[in-house]
């Protein structure tokens, strides 16, 4: 009973490996990880897990879900984290003014962790050109410039050039979308019909008249047209997320054609080797990330809906679509090398 003591109250004896990892070894905290049903974001998390397992095999992953990411929790993690621990901010397209709630949550975490080892997994930066956007950008600059060890990965050139111009002192690196860490999903299903994975939110740019034209053209070629989702509308546990992603990929692999204006609709089509015509949305993320898959002859991006018929003919003419990541693996390796160099 004598001497100085530190008591760990309510320490985990149960099977939550994230909580167990808090007590031992080097840790990689994934801050603001998704527990919600956006399967694009869940695929980003899966890609991050693969990346960490391959490049940082001695690190335990500790998940800090978005719904639990608070200033109070981050302050606590700041206190208990060790020198070699790394804090990784969840990848996506939510830095800036498109998704202010998630942006603010992540920015608060970065500010509180500014003296720690920090990496932002590949993101798209989007700030509106109004007064709100200018104020948000000024705040981001102030926070990022205070960070001691910060690597910002961006997933397309527009964000890369934006960062180089607006924050030249911040360490930025161009890296593919983290979903492209996931291996090819190859199934020999009999394909039939066309599947539409289209937005119905503020990022949608497809006008009603263009949608009507698209459906009319598709009915000329296909007997079956299915409108589908890349969301499930409830929260997901880790195993459930994996199961839902597999279901989605199986649906895609059984489709003859995909039409999408979703970034991960495009990337999932690539991973499932499914012919796909892509329509841009409000953010520049699709146009930018198309650069990572444009070498695949079964993926075609159009900016004019009148080009849809010829694009469909082109992608369907590919008899055996085959996925390969042209120089993405080298880019992922470059991110890992930069992290090891900066965080040694």
Summarize this, please?
It is built from 12 helices and 12 strands.
Notes on the protein architecture:
The chain has 344 residues and is an alpha/beta fold. Helices cover 40% and strands 18% of the residues. It has helices at 17-21, 39-55, 71-80, 100-112, 131-146, 157-166, 208-219, 238-253, 263-271, 285-289, 308-316, 328-342; strands at 26-33, 59-65, 86-89, 92-96, 117-126, 149-154, 171-174, 194-197, 225-228, 257-260, 276-278, 299-301. α2 crosses α8 (238-253) and α3 (71-80) packs parallel to α4 (100-112). The two termini are 39 Å apart.
What string, H for helix and E for strand, traces the elements in order? HEHEHEEHEHEHEEHEHEHEHEHH
Report the mean per-residue pLDDT as an integer.
92
> How big a fraction of the residues is strand?
15-25%
- End-to-end span in angstroms? 39 Å
Structural class: alpha/beta
Multimeric status of the protein: single chain
The parts where pLDDT drops under 50 for at least 5 residues are 5-18
Helicity range of the residues? 25-40%
Q: How is this fold's topology laid out?
A:
Layout: H1 17-21, E1 26-33, H2 39-55, E2 59-65, H3 71-80, E3 86-89, E4 92-96, H4 100-112, E5 117-126, H5 131-146, E6 149-154, H6 157-166, E7 171-174, E8 194-197, H7 208-219, E9 225-228, H8 238-253, E10 257-260, H9 263-271, E11 276-278, H10 285-289, E12 299-301, H11 308-316, H12 328-342
Task: Fill in the keyword field for this structure.
single chain; 344 residues; alpha/beta; seven-stranded parallel beta sheet; five-stranded parallel beta sheet; 12 helices; 18% strand; globular
